[in-house]
Fold these 4 entries.
Entry 1:
Amino acid sequence: MELASRTIDYAWWRTPGFTGLMTLCPDSVVEELSFRAAFLRTRQELKRLGVRVCFLPSYAPKTSLAALLAAKSLGVKALMMNESHGGTARASGVAAFVKRRLIALFDAALVGGTPHKRYFASMGLPAERIFTGYDAVDNEYFARKAQEIRCQWSVVSGQYDLPEHYFLSLGRFVAKKNLDTLIRAYALFLESHLPSHISDLQIPHLVMVGSGEEEPALRALCTELQLPIYDHAKGDHGPRTTDHRPQTTDHAARSAFRNPQSAIRNPGVHFYGFRQIDQNPVFYAFADAFILPSLYEEWGLVVNEAMASGLPVAVSETAGCAEDLLETGCPAGASPEDRMRIEQSGLALKVRRNGFLFNPRSAEELSRALLVFESSANLRALMGAESRRIVERFSCENFARNAMRAVEAALGKGARVLPAAAAMKLG
């Protein structure tokens, strides 16, 4: 059950022929719904259907609060789905008091992972009624699609103008994503190759998939740092073949890029614009590593997607997923040479089995992680395999199991919920 079919923040296309979904306010934008409309429509349908338990996406914004109060007014058990944690909590004083009271209205919760469970237990929700696994993607879809696409490199790479090697960032271009630090880190990474005897074809580019209000500033930063810009964005967000000449203010550099064949050899930053989910596996399939540099992040589902696609990851240590998705230790099978590189990079305390954690305010620290990734295809492969193993703990099946456990906890001791029971999700 959903309140509205559209949202301001995400321009996703809905799969044609999607069934089994009830839209309470058709043709509405969820952020524009009034509290009264959301409350009355939710209450009407919960009552008509005789719902006993409903999963609700938190207690904010106003539409979520309206749904929560509608459920409680009918005596319906309310289960909170949430990914807030101590690093994203902003409420204090009276606001924190009100937040505790709202959380107390829920009968159980399905949250992201360990830091989320810790946070909501500290806010008064009994730990035995808090379950993890809320943040999941269809791991098998991303694994399967990435493998299919890897078998078509010559065709797909040409359609999308992909460089042979690249680091990948995928997400909205908004301030909290901290993409300027990623660009600065990439500039430092390139500086380490000057002078270099490595072929430009082997030096990874930086591919950025997404759009948002920060894009003009990010492009300006690339120009300031004298990083070549490759523009692949298109209005319909489909693949295209373009002249690879980057935008640059340097006349000599522009001259060097007049031949498209030579342009692709020069490492730089590629802007691909917003892409629908069915295109994202293309970018995951061929990346050397995935980077999430957020200053703060409730979870970071793109990390799940990248890991399911078999990529090593570098994740901000403040991201909600970092504690659960990056497993302590160096990957088993890492060679003595790989371990030496990690030690010499100064990242021995930040290495994880499937990648690296890093301080999101340190472009220099992230640049060192990029250098380690680049230095060893063997290490990337080992970390990518570990990613596939670790992310299986956050599968759709695990989501379902823990959702049902939350239902049983909400209904009380000894309750057993059959698969056919009505547990409805209001999103």
Note: Confidence is low (pLDDT under 50) at residues 235-263, 420-424.
Entry 2:
Amino acid sequence: MNRFSYFVFRTSIALVSVIPFRVLYFLSDVIFLFIYYLIGYRKKVVYQNISNSFPEKSQKEIKAIARIFFHHLTDVLFESLKAFTMTELAVVKRFHIKPSPFLEKIYNEGRSAIAVAGHYNNWEWPGIAAGMQLKHKPVGFYKPLANPYVDAYVKKTRVQGRSALVSINDTAAVFKNDWGEPAAFYMIADQSPSSARLAYWVNFLNQDTATIHGPEKYARIYNMPVVYCDIQKKSRGNYEVEFILLCENPKETKTGEITAKFMNMLEDKIRQEPQYYLWSHRRWKHKRNS
């Protein structure tokens, strides 16, 4: 079964690789109609998440957000598949990272940083696009896949150039590693934690929310500055990124403070354009003291 799944996966990538973006987005339009109107993929979860997050919105508004979200989700799916065979330069043309005076300063000081992001807009392309646009060495984390063949392929092809991709199971070792130059550790930090016991709890989108502790933990251990990776969609397949300083000296903060700042900033961005957040995940499955 693993070999068959791998064959299907590689075939999908091969097909997407030869299709130009304008045709790819036409296919995305078709898949969106299929998923949204015929299958109804996780519609109930999406509606519930949006309703709980925006209790002031009407059902009409909630459905409008959900519809655009599903359309955006199919775009991100095809963009992620396309990225496996795109050159680093091709991704950079569609994923522009604005110069960061702060990152420039700490790079010259020989300091690494943690860049935190949420499941907002396209969170898959930074690992590829950052190598040519940042002085810091980009180091991204990923959760190993159950299929060993797919996992090996992802590790081999998901990043290019100076970028590195490492398993979340090796997180502690990664921060101890000498990368030969200051690194920027890219961490998706808004996912639901595997256990609520070690989670930091914040009020996020009107809900008591468990958050992962890793980014703040390592920031405080190594006193590593934390920046927010603000990914904005300019048009279909074109994004712009700005790094916003969250904390320069984590050792001077209280427990949970950095996490709260990150989640508050992410919430502000979501409230501006809620259709681009990943509403299909069961983000609020944990309850406090559960």
Note: The two ends are 36 Å apart (CA to CA).
Entry 3:
Amino acid sequence: MKFNQWTLGLAAVGVVSLASAARADETKMSQVQTALSNTTLSGYVDVSAQFNPGGGGTTGDFFPSAYPAPQNTATGPNYNLGNKANQISLNVVDLALDKPLDESPWAAGYHVELWLGPDGTTLGTSSSDSQAAIRSAYIALRTPVGNGIDWKIGVFDTIIGYESLTSGNNPNYSRSFGFNIEPTTHTGALASYKVNDIVTLQGGIANTSFDGSAYTAEINNSGANGVNGGLSSPTLIGGASLTAPDSFGWAKGAVLSGVIINTSEGTAADGDTTGATSYYVGATVPTPIAKLKFGGSFDYLNVHSGGNTWNLAGYSTYAFNDKLSLNLRYEHLSGTSSLNGGAYTTYADYYGNGENNAADEITATIQYNLWANVISRVEARWDHVEHGNGYSSVSSTELNQSEAWLLAAQLIYTF
């Protein structure tokens, strides 16, 4: 046993004995080992190759106007035309440490998840040029009220939306329009209560702010985008989900969920104030054909200072076997002009004709898991702007095309 100089000095004058100090150190080590024994390490490495026929490049020339980025960045983990077009890319390395809640009435645990790589800049939880960011970091607690209330206190993923920040949990490589008109991360407190096997309720409060064009995570009320969130102008989160029981036959396991997130007006750097409310309804439904599943979602974003955007999406998945599946998605996005010109709520700025606009997209993704622990995908996507031109060609920075194509391949190794 090696002792530090302070302990040796106390032992020399008889204040402590080396034997008791050794026992104390062993007790501390035992406590640390016990705490870590239930901690798990997991994560994934996400890479892709992307080809954009007729347009693209690394300067963002092909960035479609119909793709506002998540949170407060212009190159989010959505379509990534601006910084990933026509090249092979590392998307992100995800590392997570977990100590999940056990079944005890006063259970406690934690979750820490980090993003390393280009997509780390998209979360709004670090400086804009940093490729290392906090994806989530919260303390998990349970209070024995009724069936037990589970808490997340810290930084956590939003509860709104059909798609996840974790690409491997989604049916497609590219993100949806709906994903990009939702917040992605919150800092605050979230409570979940399972009423029974059918009904689950969630509610919380967060620092998230909205600057007129994007949500911001606002870790420690950092004031990103010049907007102050926090308890003085809080974001309120509420949601409920229904899960079909076994008595529903082939429809058992179907999930219907609804979420409302209201971000109050905050004070912007230029003195303007704004806020937004997001509404979401989504469902995933099995079918009598066991291999076929459908899903749907509706997002509505209302900017308090004026304007709105809504998106309707439909999903289908057909699993040919345990390894091979086909995933399809169709969306229609529509926006009206916003008083503050927010990217989510107006596309007139991109065309110069003052028109409100709409966009459609169709995505087809084939997933085949050839290697153990590896998700492998190929994807084709077509986008179309209904009025004007939302996309540029390789040779021009002008928006001179009304449609865009994406061909992509993706590999994700999970551990």
Note: The radius of gyration is 24 Å.
Entry 4:
Amino acid sequence: MDNQPLRYFLLDREGVIHRRSAHGHPECWDNFEFLPRALKALRLLAEHHYAGIIISHQPPKSAAAASANELDTTTRRLLLEVALAGGHIAHVYYCRHRIEDACDCYCPNIGMIARAKAEYGFQLEESYFVSEGELDLQAASDAGYPCIRIQRDAFLQERGYEEEPYKVASNLYEAAEQILASNTLLERVFSAAHSS
């Protein structure tokens, strides 16, 4: 039996796992649409002993926005579909505050990220944060997490991202490949340092 410990990666929902709806957040499961290769990405990471932790802002900003019950139902279905596809989401943290509430749980503050770290005890340098939102990425980066920005047209760029403060990927599957490659490199460096 493989007793390799889990590693964790943090990710947003909108624009990373599923398409944004007209309101930004799917109001119910019927409006939820996985992005291409998202489930394959989560399975790939799970096969390498990674579990995802979702950090997401789901404010009740309009009558059309998901109610708490709808959000719970959508979340349960999301977790089921991920598990059936072979992926592993360890936890989902939602901020339900409006931006004007100035809460400490969501960007530019890092309450939910800090809570995830406290509850799961992962190492910052091994726990990438994946999002397409600048505020999300900045908050995670300020907290010390390496970040990957989802940018749909990344594959069209002919030059590197030397000026980009984060790694860039076209989709979650590319981000997963980068996470695995980066942590493989870390393991080699660590192994070399302890064998010399």
Note: The chain has one domain: 7-195.
